[in-house]
Amino acid sequence: MTHPHDSTQGVQGELAQDTTIDNRAPRPPRSNAGRVVEKRVQVVGDKVGPNSALILLLVIGLAIVVGLSVLAAEIYEAVTDRDGVAGLDQPLLDYAITLRSPVADSIITGYTDIAGQIGMPIIAIATLLVLSIRRRSWTPVILIVAAGGGSLLMTVAGKNLIGRVRPQQAEAVPPYETSASFPSGHTLNAVAVVGVIAYLLILRRQTRRARVLIALGAVLFALTVGLSRVYLGHHWFTDVLAGWVLGAAWLAFVIFAHRLYLSIREHRHARRPAEGADGSEGAAGAERPAA
Fold it and tell me: Beta-strand (E) ranges in the chain?
């Protein structure tokens, strides 16, 4: 997916636009550990290629997020063994019930379904297709699939480890859900998948106002989807809280992996002289047009 004559597409587009924010390159790692990690990743990238290195980093990350799910499960059990739902979850659900009305229930049910098992895959697939075709790059495909895959793994791991029962159907708005309650998969999707989509969009926006609006929109969506799960009685608040925390952790790792991938790209192009205007990576990376 490369186009040698368009500085917004392919490797050339990534090096020209994705490595900078406000035409300024992100600061290099300040710590010795950060510099060591970057150099080691560059060595791996030289051997297997940037895309393969990115995929390898994300596979390692998936193992980490499963570990995070196990840790979250242990913390959750320690808290609920002591306090139970009466400490925080039940009072918040009781308050949410007082806010309900038939119209609001219908609107919020439709809204929360955006981050569900049907809505979110549609958004993810449509976005990765549009971005990958427009940018002529596999990077949006890899990152969005990774974000969704990590969200799914954490959801499955958490539900299987905890097996928490959802609020009673008498306290919930139909259609009812019967899977385990912890963590909230809708919330995880809203943070991880929509978060990485927002990140990819922000990289190519030319104004700070546009970037801020995209970021605020993603944050507002993640917060409101989580709260909608409590309002509808489909999850306890602690299920949603875990979704926010785990989703944010996975999103941060996906972005970190992408920055390392871009470091590999820059490192390879710095070492490789231009090979002429034949569409090769060397030629694409010889010059970096202004974003």
Answer: none
